[in-house]
Amino acid sequence: MAVTITIPTALRQYAGGQARVTAASGPIGAVLKGLTEQYPQLGTQLYNEQGQLRSFVNIYVGDEDIRHLQGVETSVPDGETVSIIPAIAGG
Amino acid sequence: MVEFQRDDARQHVLELVGNTPLLRLNRIASLPPGVSLFAKAEWYNPGGSVKDRPALWMIRDGERRGLLRPGMRIADATSGNTGIAYATLGAALGYPVTLALPENASLERRRMLRALGAELILTDAGEGMDAAIQAIRELVASTPERYFYPDQYNNPANVQSHYDTTGAEIWRQSGGQVTHFVAALGTCGTFTGTGRRLRAENPNIRLVAVQPDGPYHALEGVKHLASTAHVPGIYDATLADATLVVSSEAALAMARRLARAEGLLVGISAAANVVAALRVARELETGTVVTILCDSAAKYLSGPFWDEATLTEGEGI
Hints:
The structure holds 2 protein chains of 2 kinds. By secondary structure, chain A is an alpha+beta fold. Helices cover 24% and strands 25% of the residues of chain A. Chain A has 3 helices and 7 strands; from the N terminus they run E-H-E-E-H-H-E-E-E-E. In chain A, helix 2 crosses helix 3. Chain A starts with a strand and ends in a 6-residue tail after the last strand. Chain B folds into 2 domains: 6-44 and 162-307, 3-Layer(aba) Sandwich (Rossmann fold), CATH 3.40.50; 52-148, Rossmann fold. Chain B contains 8 helices and 10 strands. Chain B has a 6-stranded mixed beta sheet with strand order 1-2-10-7-8-9, with helices on both faces. A 4-stranded parallel beta sheet of chain B has the order 5-4-3-6, sandwiched between helices. In chain B, strand 3, helix 2 (81-93) and strand 4 form a beta-alpha-beta unit. Chains A and B meet through helix 1, helix 3 and strand 7 of A and helix 4 and helix 7 of B.
């Protein structure tokens, strides 16, 4: 089993055009690090120069914002979905 | 005793659209002598944002063309503010409103729209505005006689509203002194219409567009044109003299600074405009820079950045 990461339209160009990527389960911080090692350009969009998630990046595990869970320590169990939620663009 | 002045009474909410104050920003940063920075306080519009202007012009244009008639619904895709404008003006004019917007539009916006009686179609957050546009086009195509679809991204009346009002007001309120106009690109209506008007008044005016630093950003309502699949039809690539890139972090930090240093509780795209306008102003020896405060912070108060410890106020300017 693995976890599914949904990639918003705006970021798919940095993830080989994929809408969904699978990854091994674990803490969300490690899941995202694995994703951005696979797709380095995605990393520059999501992380700042200090290697932290940029403050406005919205990551959901299931339906819950990780800010309201355990942040980057939030565990992502097998079968769960991780969503990277974009800002809303244009009018 | 103060007498009630009949001239002060407004007959209709529509009369509140436009003629917003032009505010001088003088506490957020020191500027060279001879340089001033002004901003249009667009939350003074009845729907609370700059979008009342294009919404009203598109509705009136639809009526004149016979595309919007009594009994029809107004339908469009919107990230929020244009929707609030349609819902506000639609209610005042007796037109019901259907809007498609991504499900991650802030809770405040969705509540505001429902409170105004709008019917909402929430689309997949990950698919962004493209999915909302697709949803509304399918709805309208299914029963075209039922809907008026203004299509704010491609409607010249959007641009015209800013030519007739925003641009004209800035020229008048600055006494013709404006030298630089700075605004972010979303539908591109504000930048294109205001820019064209100011350039018609003074061909030497400098027009500076604002863009986020990538396709994934926090500037709700602003579009990263280099990566979008749908460049708005009203975008005029020949207009801007320069384009400045503003990071989301700089905009969020500026939103907080504007609140605490100027008493101006404004939204994130407004703050991005101020970041860019300040950069322009600091490079000048003399000049008058004008930008747009698109809306207030009322719809963004649930955002975590107001208390974010790692944000440095004034960063990135």
